[in-house]
Write a structure and sequence with these properties.
This protein has 13 helices and twelve strands. By secondary structure, it is an alpha/beta fold. The strands form three sheets. It has a seven-stranded mixed sheet with strand order 2-8-7-6-5-3-4, sandwiched between helices. A three-stranded antiparallel sheet has the order 9-10-12. Strands 1-11 form a two-stranded parallel sheet. It binds pyridoxal-5'-phosphate.
């Protein structure tokens, strides 16, 4: 046999990706989407100061970025009241998830997550030969007490918990999570994914010390700060764990323009505040559109809203297909019973109006298909 000799692990992996991107779907459709409401991007856009900083940095793009991300780490440390040694910056939360899993998960090691939770964590675990144990959602929320109990049974090295959660938009009070940490088994790390926490009510971020070695928190500039394409995320954790990232990370992985863009975005909290207000208004508008069509929107602490289509996953998928057919990009949860919902990102009125215009026809078609089937 010729060709590269893959590891047995690589040979065993399915050739799948966690998400099929909207561009891939557009190529398959042969035309663009009229409204891009499926990837929880922030359509309200980044701070103009961030855009200006990135434009200025373009002329210096011949230089690699600062491998230590010093300016951004110092600014983030000041923002969170911790030291730069508590912060690692990486290529989005997705990139940091890969590094963390590489540090902690070897072949056969157990991790615990919720059935149908954010899948990129699972993708990395599979890539390093880990074993994924799942716990169902309870009342459309991730069930951290059950996750911790499962971790004890499975001798898990990591528990993944997103608060607020994607895909449901649900959330827990941070104080509850912090209080439950005593139930986390020894030697198990809580990976608290707070990608959407800026969009959530006060008190959602868990009041956990950055020196608490049981927890690592992950944040991103992709959501509230509207910089998904820049790929900037960071983690806050115990300095020993943070330092360990240096053993495996791509030291020159950060884009130089993205580094200064994120710094400018962080320094423009006024922009963040007005974007958060627009997200709040868009959540209400999406709920209104759902109600006009006889559907219920779930409460959301994120920049998207899950709409309960009132039946099973097959029906919700038919609704989703009907929307995509009409040029409206949305997504839906992967696992039941949460897959009775479709998931719609917040955005300006033009995009939401396009969604409102397409939803009745999508529902009519899905009902007809249900009757025929
Ligand atoms: C829960 C959650 N974590 C992480 C991410 C990815 O974040 P990043 O763009 O920083 O990789 C997403 C994106 O949708 C998400 O929903």
């Amino acid at each position: 046999m010729t060709g590269p000799r893959y590891t047995p692990l690589a040979l065993s992996l399915p050739a799948t990706v966690p998400f099929v991107g909207p561009e891939t779907q557009e190529r398959a459709r042969g035309q663009g989407f009229a409204a891009r409401l499926g990837a929880n991007e922030n359509i309200f856009g980044p701070s103009p100061k961030a855009v200006e900083a990135m434009a200025k940095a373009a002329a210096e793009i011949w230089k690699y970025g600062d491998a230590e991300n010093i300016d951004l780490r110092h600014a983030l440390a000041a923002h969170h009241g911790v030291s730069p040694a508590h912060i690692i910056v990486g290529e989005g939360i997705d990139g940091l998830l890969g590094y963390l899993v590489r540090l902690l998960v070897g072949a056969g090691d157990a991790v615990v997550t919720s059935l149908g939770a954010y899948p990129t964590f699972n993708y990395h675990v599979a890539g390093f030969g880990g074993v994924i144990h799942t716990v169902p959602y309870r009342d459309d929320r991730e069930d951290y007490e059950a996750l911790f109990a499962r971790a004890a049974e499975a001798d898990a090295k990591i528990v993944y918990l997103a608060n607020p959660d994607n895909p449901m938009g649900s959330w827990h009070k941070g104080a509850g999570i912090a209080a439950a940490l005593d139930q986390l088994p020894a030697g198990c790390l809580l990976l608290l994914d707070e990608a959407y926490v800026e969009c959530a009510p006060e008190g959602t971020a868990a009041p956990v010390s950055a020196d608490d070695a049981r927890v690592i928190r992950m944040r991103t500039f992709s959501k509230a700060y509207a910089m998904a394409g820049a790929r900037v995320g960071y983690a806050i954790g115990h300095p020993d764990l943070i330092a360990a990232f240096n053993k495996v990370r791509n030291h020159f992985g950060m884009n130089r323009a993205a580094q200064v863009g994120a710094l400018a975005a962080l320094q423009d909290q006024d922009w963040l505040d007005q974007v958060l207000a627009q997200i709040g208004a868009a959540r209400l508008r999406i709920a209104e559109i759902a109600a006009e069509n006889g559907l219920a929107a779930l409460p959301s602490a994120t920049n998207f809203v899950a709409i309960d289509c009132g039946r099973d996953g097959v029906f919700a998928k038919a609704v989703l297909d009907g929307l995509v057919d009409q040029g409206i990009f949305v997504r839906m949860p992967f696992a039941g019973p949460q897959n009775r919902c479709i998931r719609v990102s917040c955005g300006p009125e033009a995009e939401l109006s396009a969604f409102a215009a397409a939803l009745p026809e999508a529902l009519t078609r899905a009902l007809a298909a249900a009757r025929a089937g």
